Amino acid sequence: MRYAMTIGAAAALVAVAACSEKRVDTGMPVAGAAKAVAMLRTAAGVDVGRASATEVAGGVRFTIDAKGMPQGNHGAHIHMTGRCDGPDFTTAGGHWNPTNMKHGSMNPQGPHEGDLPNLMIGADGRGTLGATIPGATMAGLMDADGAAIVVHAGPDDLMTDPAGNSGARIACGVFQPG
Ligand SMILES: [Cu+2]
Ligand SMILES: [Zn+2]
């Protein structure tokens, strides 16, 4: 009897663990996952890398592979409209924000769904980033007006609405189904 109760308690613990596990952002790949790719360009049209968006379990995983950018930390976000008109790329609109939050992962009222960590560019002008946005969907990203990825001149403080004081938009890319 005592043995059976211990087993029962252990099973309950496993059930709780399995349940909370589902909420963890695993970023596990999904078979036949939808994917989109964006080529990053400066206002002068210079190729400065690429970004990708891939459907994963529970969200969308974004990557950036950058080159030819100024050394330092740069704000990087998914913007709501799939347009990148120079020189200031304002046509990309604000941050992708389907859930009506404020900007920044350190903002108690944040973050936007389109908020990514800072992109760190090294002395060689290169940098990479990978982040999964829980709850995001490819259908939401690739809606009628599309989406763009934007890299800013300065670092994102991850807190100040609407864009973390990250300065001018120095590179932009429109997501295309890939
Ligand atoms: Cu931005
Ligand atoms: Zn934001």
Structure commentary:
The chain is an alpha+beta fold and 178 residues long. It is 13% helix and 31% strand. The chain has helices spanning 2-21, 138-141, and strands at 35-41, 47-56, 59-66, 72-74, 76-79, 119-121, 127-134, 148-152, 169-174, 176-177. The strands form 3 sheets. Strands 7-3-2-1-10 form a 5-stranded antiparallel β-sheet, with no helix packed on it. The protein has a 3-stranded antiparallel β-sheet with strand order 5-8-9, with no helix packed on it. It is globular. The protein starts with a helix and ends with a strand. It binds copper (II) ion and zinc ion. Residues 77, 95, 103, 112, 114-115, 163 line the site of zinc ion. Copper (II) ion (CU) binds at residues 75, 77, 79, 95, 150, 152, 163.
- Strand tally is 10
Estimated helix fraction: 10-25%
If strands are numbered along the chain, what order do they take across the biggest sheet? 7-3-2-1-10
Question: Structural class of the secondary structure composition?
Answer: alpha+beta
Fraction in beta strands = 25-35%
Distance between the termini: 58 Å
Mean pLDDT: 88
Poorly predicted runs: 1-25
Number of helices in the DSSP assignment = 2
Overall outline: globular
Say which molecules are bound, naming each kind only once: copper (II) ion, zinc ion
Largest sheet: 5 strands, antiparallel
N-to-C series of helices and strands: HEEEEEEEHEEE
Q: From the alpha carbons, calculate the radius of gyration and give it in angstroms.
A: 19 Å
